[in-house]
Amino acid sequence: MRARAEHVLPFTLLLPSVAFLALLIVIPMFQALLLAFVAEKGGFTLEHFQQMFGDVNFGDAWRNTLLLLLLIVPLQLVLALAMALLVNSRFRGYGFFLYIYAIPLAISDLAAGILWLAVFTERGYLNSALQSAGVIQQPILFLSFENFPGILSAIVIAESWRATAIVLLILVAGLQLIPRDYFEAADLFGADRIRRTIHVVLPLLRPSLQSALIIRTIFAFQTFAVVFALAGRNMPVLAGEAYVWYAGNRNEHLAATYAVLLLGLTACVTVIYLRVLGLREAEVQR
Amino acid sequence: MNARVLDRTLIYGIAVLLAVWVLIPFYIIAISAFTPQAKIFDYPKPLVPTTFSTETMQFFVDARGVIPSVLNSVLVAVFTIVFGLALGTPAGYALARFHFRGREAFQVIVLATKMFPIAILSIPLAVTFLQLGLYDNLVSVALTGGVFVAVSHELEEAAQTLGCSRWGAFLRVALPLALPGLAAAAIFTFVVSWNEVFAATILTLRTRTLPAQVLAGLGTSPLGFKFAGGLFMALPAVVFIFMIRRYLINLWGSR
Question: In terms of CA atoms, which chain A residue is nearest residue B33?
Fold first, then answer.
């Protein structure tokens, strides 16, 4: 009797969280598909997708989202890798610096956008600094809708600044798993710091880099509040369009259609990454 | 100068440079939020402020809906913590204490949910809540936020400590040992909940949380309001990160 109870107990303990996850993920997923694929009068339809693809902002939103992804994700990885390797060298006071670098973890994308708005706005601190230094004669309109490179750079900087911290912690956790002997062995063979990093550390860090890459790419599709804070409606992105269609235009069908598109993109990216990166890893092992 | 000193200088130089990059926006938003209203459009602004005033912060706090939205944010965070602990602690205990069929599968599913674009699902979820009459309800916001933290790694570790003992020793030995972990998990949950923007905006209309309130007003509110709001959202989270700094790698790193 007791053995049987012991057998059932773990499943009983897991049940609430499994049920909770199922309710809050499976139900909305079905709801999203229903909203996107079922017409108002019932029956299967592609009209919501046609409407989405035909929307004036769709092309821009699609291009901007991909552009931001391509610029932000590599920048984050490089910055975070630099910070992580630095921290991992365990110089005196490294814990303090790790804490400083981790602070943006606690900042939402909305707050990050506003923080950098104070820097980039027309009479903000970047223009003030440049003018005081005599570099410019009048303020640069970084965030004007006519200055696409300006808006783009501001968003890339703000979002990289914020989310680098997340990548950093994933990489530091990964570096901690590498036995110290490996570094010493590399030193023994006379490898300098750069060669040691390239030939010993980076290959061992691969799993962490991989999961950081997947996570950041997935979340880059959802970039939204930082864009709204810095650019308003001047820079449409996919997640932002979902929000606008839901909250602004009160069209839950189109909003859900964007949600389905983002879900599909997420799934594709994950599969592609796992295929490309996973296969290579298997080759290395062989 | 020998190679060792040069090496040191280089390491600290880079470390300080990166720290400045991280800290500068905090400095800028702080001096912006404490610039008096009349001077917000001064140009060029001095990088070291000459005037200090709480007028802009006062204006933000007095603005309609701000105080209630702060209270809503705190309430949502508390609800989320309660949900998270109630659901996550038994699950963490099961994972730590038992080896059963499907254990690895469950862990993979939990990991997958952390990568899932749940914010995007808040749109169909809002429609469901609307049908159920739960829309614009703080509990439903907390439920959605709870998905992110339902089973956190930290809880698993905390429960591992619990798992080491029988109920008799539990109160005197295990609970005190697990408490810091549980507290860290709770603070982590608070930070995640406090920062939730998309879902909170979608799921609330009148009972807005602070980020929802600030986001909804982005297009219309004056610059001073935004700056004060930015500082207001950023500060508590920074304090909390400091409190759980020892747990950071466990909480965020183990994806």
Answer: A118
